[in-house]
Write a structure and sequence with these properties.
By secondary structure, the protein is an all-beta fold. Helices cover 0% and strands 59% of the residues. The protein contains no helices and eleven strands. It has strands at residues 2-7, 10-13, 18-26, 30-39, 46-52, 57-59, 67-72, 77-82, 91-100, 108-111, 115-120. The strands form two sheets. Strands 2, 4, 5, 6, 9, 10 and 11 form a seven-stranded mixed sheet that branches. A four-stranded antiparallel sheet has the order 1-3-8-7, with no helix packed on it. β4 (30-39) and β5 (46-52) form a beta hairpin. The chain is elongated. The N and C termini lie far apart (40 Å).
């Protein structure tokens, strides 16, 4: 089984910063893409940022220039550095990983349990 454990959420004032971490553990052969999604109340889950094992990144337009995603492949850990936070960034943030449990297996998707980020006015 593969587990994604997130940490780093919390309450912060507008303009502040937070760093989220997500560590993957368990029986996994390789992880290609790791990323962060978020879901605000009454809204659909949306991609925030993603990073490949080679370091290529992709960001939602709403967070470009404010959020930075990074990754430690040796630790199977992904980070999301969030600066200049806005109230509209308030959501539950979910870690996601796409990987294989064996070299010959198909790509599987894994999700963390979610961590709350609340940005006050």
């Amino acid at each position: 089984q593969v587990q994604l454990v997130e940490s780093g959420g919390g309450l912060v004032q507008a303009g502040g910063s937070l760093r989220l971490s997500c560590a993957a553990s368990g029986s996994i052969f390789s992880i290609n893409v790791m990323g962060w999604y978020r879901q605000a109340p009454g809204k659909q889950r949306e991609l925030v940022a993603a990073i490949t094992s080679g370091g290529s990144t992709n960001y939602a337009n709403s967070v470009k220039g404010r959020f930075t995603i990074s990754r430690d492949n040796a630790k199977n850990t992904v980070y999301l550095h969030m600066n200049s936070l806005k109230p509209e960034d308030t959501a539950v943030y979910y870690c996601n990983a796409e990987g294989k449990r064996t070299p010959w297996g198909g790509t599987l998707h894994y999700w963390g349990q979610g961590t709350q980020v609340t940005v006050s006015e």
